[in-house]
UniProtKB/TrEMBL annotation:
PANTHER family in alphabetical order: COILED-COIL DOMAIN-CONTAINING PROTEIN 68, GDOWN1
Gene Ontology process terms (BP): intracellular signal transduction
The protein, known as: Coiled-coil domain-containing protein 68
UniProt-listed InterPro entries: Tuftelin_GRINL1A/MYZAP/CCD68
Coiled coil: 65-92, 158-206, 248-289
Gene3D superfamilies: 1.10.287.1490
Keyword annotations: Coiled coil
Amino acid sequence: MTEHFLFCGSTLSEIIEETEYIKKIRSTLAKVQPLLYKKESNHSIANGTLDSKLHFTESELVPDEETLSSNNEETLNRIKKVEEELLWVNKENERLKFKLEALRAAGAECVKHGSQKLQENYAKHSEDLKKRQEGVINTIKTRKLEQEQILKQSTDSLGQLSVQLNEKYGQIEELEKRVQRMEEEKKRLGEKKELLKKKLHQMMSNVESTRSCVKVQSEMCVLQEQITHLDSMIHSQHQHLHNLIHQTEGLNNELKYQDERIENLKDQIAVLQEKNNELRYQVEFYKNQSKRKISKAVCTRIDENMPYIVISRRRK
């Protein structure tokens, strides 16, 4: 602020010094004003006394003429001295008045300049902050779009996983039914083999049924081959079923991971949206605050009741 006053022609200490000097002049005027009235009153009394003396006889006038002349001259000298002092005070007051007006104008100009500078700095700061926040908003917007794209991909992947999982469940169910049918067929063939085995045991006790025994043995061999083939198929289907169950567990884990990822992405998008809205509000706020405001002018009007103004009017 001191550098503003130097720019205008006066420092703060000079303004304080001039203000104290003006107060001192006011105090002097307040003391001189009653004295002036008293001198004028004495001058009127002296003139009245002189007029009354003229009515005396010539014999009475001769002894007092020299005294009256001396008193009158002394009074006139005092009045002249007071008038000269008042004239000097008047001129000094005029000079101080103009200097005070100049100081007030300079102060008003400094305040105006400081206000403009402050407003410019504030506007620049607001504009810089606005640009930075707009950059952050664009970054957040880009990040949000990326997260939304990832969310879409994760959602699509989740849908595909759900379809694959349903297919696996269907395959497992179908395979379980197939294995169950094979188990039932194996059981039926085993029972049939046991019957043929019992029949063969009965036929072996009868020598005449040798040819029939060969036929039964052939049937038993065929049944054994079928049972062996079923065992192999059942074992293969069990392995396939185990693989399907393992794949289903993997799909379930992947599905759970995608669910958690989608929820996390939704939370991130919500946070980004909230931050984006907050930054937009701040940008609008600073945009409204950065509008130029008109500074209030500083009053430079001179008080009409100041002592030197009153004396000046009376002298005129």
